[in-house]
Amino acid sequence: xxxxxxxxxxxxxxxxxxxxxxxxxxxxxxxxxxxxxxxxxxxxxxxxxxxxxxxxxxxxxxxxxxxxxxxxxxxxxxxxxxxxxxxxxxxxxxxxxxxxxxxxxxxxxxxxxxxxxxxxxxxxxxxxxxxxxxxxxxxxxxxxxxxxxxxxxxxxxxxxxxxxxxxxxxxxxxxxxxxxxxxxxxxxxxxxxxxxxxxxxxxxxxxxxxxxxxxxxxxxxxxxxxxxxxxxxxxxxxxxxxxxxxxxxxxxxxxxxxxxxxxxxxxxxxxxxxxxxxxxxxxxxxxxxxxxxxxxxxxxxxxxxxxxxxxxxxxxxxxxxx
Length: 322
Known about the structure:
This protein has nine helices and nine strands. With 322 residues, the chain is of the alpha/beta class. It is globular, with a radius of gyration of 19 Å. The chain starts with 33 loop residues before the first helix and ends in a 13-residue tail after the last helix.
């Protein structure tokens, strides 16, 4: 057992943390197509339901494949790492399937808020579920998530299960009308949003929420410009991960709870919640850096395991290693 509270061996390579992240993507956090397309699709979902969204996702995702999806959205680099022996036709088929998967995830989020009974949520392990409920409802925690499966629905489902106040750290840079639509119709009471682009304000909000015993949901697989990062090995190459969740856990003494909500059927989602673990920083500054690097590498290894198992459901559409 190491200082992070995990049983994972130390990583072979320990790159030094970088002071700030470089802009590594074209991702900007906005809904493509504008407000009226977004609202039209949202209203149509009331009629077509889950079967219609499944079929429609193939048609809607096809333009992304035709117009730059192979490179602008990083899919070519991604599938080259996961399927190095695949030919061009095979890669295009995988890209199309991944875009369609993302479309279904977005539709499911809206459909779940219209009627959550449309879907079945299954917990991987009841003992883990009970532990997670106790930690989140009594002491607060950092819920570490990723763009695997339906991460936003995951946070809201956990909020319902635990009754804990939840703060979601996410970029709010969408079209103002789209943002208002989402806030009013797709975000239940008891859940607030912290925008990480306001570095100081976000840090204060995160630490205040954790000190109050609330749960803070943070994404561990996307970096915005200006965020401190730590490099770890991921899918066979070094990649940058945000330092924020791990630094917040170390400073506040709150545990990290890794969570994934993956789609395992037309109407079924499986919730996977890991055992909580703590990051304890030693007094020696050099050892502190190693502990943080170890914690990030542990997360990168865990994320890689989920990505390899559900490769169509990792919805990060830019070159993650660039």
